[in-house]
Amino acid sequence: MTHFTRFAAIDWSGAKGSRHKGIALAVCDTGNDAPVLVDPPGGAWSRAAILDWLLANRAEPMLVGFDMSFCAPFIERGAYLPGESTQTDAKAFWAYVDANSPDEDLGAASFIDSRRGTHFYLGADDGAKAQFLHFRRVEALHNDAGFGKATTVYDAIGAAQVAKASFAGMRLLHRLDGQVAIWPFDPPPAKGMAIVEIYTTIAARAAGLRKGLSKLRTAAALDQALATLGSQSHAPLSRYDDHSTDAILASAWLRANADRRELWSPAGLSPEIARTEGWTFGVS
């Protein structure tokens, strides 16, 4: 059994700028009350404000899920950026990304843009897209099992891309390293906060949403999904956008699944993978 009594989910963004409508934060406590959105300072969250919120609450027994990839693939090719990077563990690579990303508000768009065609795919001018499709072991397992189509952080084009959010997230993780437990790079803590990578589609499937219909855009649809996860109805929202409903549903899913031992010790998670690539909480 875990010690967590609060459960937060963050829908993340790698967009340029300093305020992001694509970031949403929802929190719930032990029990069955519906998660609630945390109001952002200044009307919209910045990535720096999320960092500040995490640090201010790091002593709480809180499990926090981020919808992003915590690192780039390493096992498949023996390097994160073959021919460039020399780091052999995720924490060192986070530091490398942070040191080479001058973007405001922990952004990493310039890191990706300056390496397009070499490490990242941003369009047809970069060559055949297939040559950029390298995956972490957890993504390959997820895709092979038919749970959905997890994307690679090297594909930086299209609505489904996770590259920009993930590399911005690595800058955030670098700032949190040593102050908050980041699983599975760190073991689950006996007290205080822990941060895990989540995939909101897993929460959607667990809540009964069919494949291809994982977004909740009405109050009734959100309440039905929450009920499936053992949660009461939510307080009405001013807007039912994907970011808000994803965060609310994922927070409830974390609460419902935090004590599942197999999710903390998945069969495919070796010490090498835990050190270099990480894992998505919920893939067992």
What does this structure look like?
The protein is built from ten helices and six strands. By secondary structure, it is an alpha/beta fold. It has a six-stranded mixed β-sheet with strand order 3-2-1-4-6-5. Helix 2 packs across helix 5 and helix 6 packs across helix 8 (242-257).
Rounded mean pLDDT score: 94
| Main beta sheet | 6 strands, mixed
End-to-end Cα distance, whole Å, is 17 Å
Give the helix proportion (percent range). 25-40%
* Strand residue content: 5-15%
Order of SSEs, N→C?
Answer: EEEHEHHHHEEHHHHH
Computed Rg: 18 Å
- Lateral arrangement of strands in the main beta sheet: 3-2-1-4-6-5
Number of strands: 6
Instruction: Please identify the structural class as seen in this structure.
Output: alpha/beta
Shape: globular
What is the count of DSSP helices, taking H or I runs of 4+ residues?
10
Residue stretches low in confidence (pLDDT < 50, at least 5 long) are: none
